[in-house]
Amino acid sequence: MELLDRLMKNSNYWIRFELGLIQLEGKQYFEEIHHRAMTIFNSLFDKTDEILMVNCISNHIDYKKNDLPRIIRFIHNKKIIYSLKCKTIPYEYDEEDIEMETKQYSLNVKKDDIRLRYLIQSISNQDFALKPMINGSLYLLNLTKETVFHMYDDRGCDVYSFDKEKLLPLYSNFRNWILDYDRIQIDRKFEQGLFNLYETSIEMEERLESNENKVREIGINLFQVNTCYITHKLEIPIKCAKECLSEMTQTGFGINFEQKDNDIIISATKLEALALIDYQSELMTLYSKKYKGKYNGWSVI
Predict the structure, then answer these.
(1) What whole-number distance in Å separates Cα of residue 170 and Cα of residue 145?
(2) Domain limits of the chain?
(3) Which pTM value belongs to this model?
(4) Which CATH superfamily is domain 201-300 in?
(5) Start-to-end Cα distance in the chain
(6) How large is the angle between the packed helices 277-290 and 201-218, nearest 10 degrees?
(7) Is the distance from CB of 74 to CB of 55 less than 8 angstroms?
């Protein structure tokens, strides 16, 4: 448990991957979640690794219902359930002064012991009130490699490590699955991509003010449903265009381009909440800066 706490709070390296894609619906949506989550897990864990499965459940102290996590559902070999351990962590919820406690159930397993598809389905169903559904949060701690896999819901999963080299293959092989919202921070952790690229304070202020004015002109209420197709335009010199396109196709944006005189005009489109325009415009500004080009703003449908 101590290793898990240290990795979650003090690990130098982490990656947040996007699992559920807003442009997909129904069966396709959940199939993509399963594909991505299983691929990431299988890249992080080997058959011989020692794994600690940890299920954290928070309840009122006077909670009467049986709160056992039913971890047995997530393993093939039912006999190992007899080694299940439990640790209780008391705490208080300040706002309402309600006494709470967290129970941490842990079980030592091997990779082949885990019913991975069923586990992923149970986590994915949390926000949809579908069965099977997990209770609480579940972490898979690789004791051999000192890494953590945490799928928090249908939207995404996090991986943690003290050692950059242990996560570098994941970063390199699945860069297009990294959540774009955290991409700049993650690139800087791994010293690649947009590492060492920054806006000046004046550039940032001008960009944010421009975004605010444009949102006001469009008239979309950011406090209501505001999902749009957002398209960014970048003007990149031809000599830098190939490398720029190669990097930008490894994001979650759809990329198109056309030649105009001595430049390539790149269109980067994503279906997402307009409320997130500030992070998107920062990404595009930095890509433009890296490849000696110009960011020409955004439009929405």
Answers:
(1) 14
(2) 2-190, 201-300
(3) 0.90
(4) RraB-like (3.30.70.970)
(5) 48
(6) 130
(7) no
